[in-house]
Every structure is written in structure tokens, then in C-alpha cells.
Design a protein that fits this description.
Blueprint (H helix, E strand, L loop, with lengths): L2 H10 L3 E2 L2 H13 L4 H15 L3 E2 L1 H16 L14 E6 L6 H14 L4 E5 L5 H14 L2 E3 L6 H14 L4 E5 L8 H15 L8 E7 L5 H9 L7 E5 L9 H9 L3 E5 L7 E3 L2 H9 L2
Parallel strand pairs: 3-6, 3-7, 4-5, 4-6, 7-8, 8-9
Antiparallel strand pairs: 1-2, 9-10
Helix pairs in contact: 1-2, 2-3, 4-11, 5-6, 7-8
């Protein structure tokens, strides 16, 4: 997934003594991988303190980086679990092109395969194409779609939640319009959807998940900053991680906001989704 970083790292530390020039090369690599500057500085100073002026191999550097990176993100490895209350409600948010629709489809496939009853409320009501794409994924997964074109999103969320409740569904996903986080009208709409379903269940939604493009780099942190000004986000799903050279932002994202990445996706098939593991992520990043 992320071997590009590991290969470049190995090329820096081939038969090298750790000097200022080598540290600069390492710093540049870390920054271009979209790890935030404060974390990069911490990593550089840690390595410098331990190994400056000494012969060092790429394996030794990777082990130091692994230990330090896991200290930052491993405490937030939280497994995504479906609660006992029915329906367990999950609001999915994200900007256009983040992969939100396909992610919902993959999650439907996962939970239907586990024997759960799943519905999806299509609250992106003003784009027929969005509902049609979602409908294909939901049908393929064996879940149920609740939709109505050209209707009020919050009204549909209210009706859809009640339908899912009457069906005794285990899970209801609430899809929302792929929105730019600086669009005030769309953000207000999202807030209204949340307030509306709280009228039925004051504890709803059970989870609000922000879907982020794995190629988004530091822009993903900006999206989180904007969204979190309006609503409480419980965690993230990172999409399109295959071949991404900017996945270092995931470290910055978790470390800054102290929230988990629940899943990552890395393909177009229904089962191309898996729980996030900080150890696996760092090992892949460093090619360990």
C-alpha cells in the first residue's frame, strides 16, 4: 500500500553515517509524505539524539520511526462496534469525490454478510445520479434503500429513521450530500438532519463518520477542521489508500484530533474494506 515511502527511506540510509545532510534528506521525505511539521521535528530530534554521528542502517532508522509513530497513534486504535440499540444509526459525511457512496456500499456488504439487517437513507436528495449510484451498491449488498427524489433531506432522514425502526433494522446508514465543508447552506442542512433524528432518539446518531480520500494529504486535515466546527465527528474512514504517496497525513490526523480511523478501503470490490490497524499501517509505510 505505502511501500514508496519505505523504498525512499532505504535509499537515504544505504551505508551512511547519520549527519546533518542525511537528517535533512529524511526530513524532506517525511514532509513530502504529508506528515505534519511538528511530528517531523519530533522524529528528527529523536533520531538525532540517539544516533547522530554513528553508522546507521535503514533497518535501525525504521525501527526508531516505528516506535515513535506508534506512540502517537496506537492509543487511538478503537474497534468499530455496532451497539445493541436498534437501529444503530451511522451518519456518513464527506466532500464530493471522497468515496463516501462506495464506502457505504462496502459497509452494507460487510454487515449484511454478517447477518445484520441494514437500511440506507439516501439524503443526497437533489442529485438523482448520487441516489442511483447508491441504489446499485445497496441492492448488490442485499441491504434496503430508503429514498425520495426532490424532497427535504432532514424530512427524509426523519421518515427513514422511523421506517428502519419499524423494520427492526440492526443498522441504518444516513447518506448525506457530498458537500464542501465551507458551504454554509450544506453544513446547516447536515446539522438539521442530526437535530431531526434526535427528535426520535435523543442519542442518535450513534456514530458520525467522516470519509476522507487517501490521496488528500494535508487537505484532509482542513476538511476535518471545517466539519468539526459544526458537528461532533466520532472517527474516520480513509479511502483509495492503494498506491497513495500522501498517507502520512493519517498520522497527523489521528495525533491532532485524538480520534480513530475505523476502516480503510483499497479497491473497487465490495469486500475491499478492512479495519484500520496502526501497527499494520506503520509496517506498510516503512516496509517492515
Amino acid at each position: 500500500m505505502l511501500g514508496i515511502f519505505g523504498k525512499k527511506l532505504s535509499s537515504i540510509f544505504t551505508n551512511k553515517k547519520l549527519d546533518n545532510a542525511t537528517l535533512e534528506s529524511l526530513e524532506e521525505l517525511l514532509i513530502t509524505s504529508d506528515i505534519s511539521y511538528d511530528i517531523v521535528e519530533h522524529l528528527i530530534q529523536t533520531i538525532k539524539k540517539q544516533k547522530f554521528g554513528k553508522d546507521i542502517t535503514d533497518t535501525e532508522i525504521k525501527q526508531i520511526l516505528k516506535e515513535e509513530l506508534l506512540k502517537l497513534i496506537q492509543p487511538f486504535d478503537i474497534k468499530f462496534e455496532i451497539g445493541k440499540d436498534k437501529p444503530f444509526s451511522i451518519i456518513m459525511i464527506g466532500v464530493n469525490g471522497s468515496g463516501k457512496t462506495t464506502t457505504i456500499g462496502k459497509l452494507c456488504h460487510k454487515y449484511v454478510s454478517e447477518g445484520k439487517s441494514v437500511s440506507v437513507i439516501a439524503c443526497d436528495t437533489f442529485r438523482i445520479a448520487a441516489t442511483e449510484q447508491l441504489a446499485e451498491w445497496v441492492k448488490k449488498a442485499g441491504a434496503k434503500l430508503i429514498s425520495k427524489n426532490n424532497t427535504n433531506p432532514s424530512g427524509l432522514a426523519y421518515d427513514g429513521y422511523n421506517i428502519a425502526k419499524s423494520q427492526n433494522d440492526d443498522i441504518v446508514f444516513i447518506d448525506t450530500a457530498g458537500r464542501l465543508s465551507n458551504n454554509e447552506n450544506l453544513m446547516a442542512e447536515l446539522e438539521k438532519i442530526i437535530k431531526t433524528i434526535k427528535k426520535i432518539n435523543p442519542t442518535a446518531p450513534d456514530k458520525t463518520i467522516l470519509v476522507l480520500d487517501g490521496n488528500g494529504g494535508q487537505n484532509s486535515l482542513t476538511q476535518m477542521e471545517k466539519f468539526s466546527q459544526n458537528i461532533n465527528i466520532d472517527g474516520f474512514i480513509i479511502t483509495k489508500t492503494e498506491g497513495s504517496s500522501k498517507s502520512g497525513f493519517i498520522i497527523s490526523l489521528i495525533n491532532k484530533y485524538k480520534k480513530p480511523v475505523y476502516f480503510i478501503t483499497n479497491g473497487e470490490k465490495a469486500d475491499d474494506i478492512k479495519p484500520f490497524s496502526s501497527t499494520e499501517f506503520v509496517n506498510n509505510l516503512l516496509e517492515l
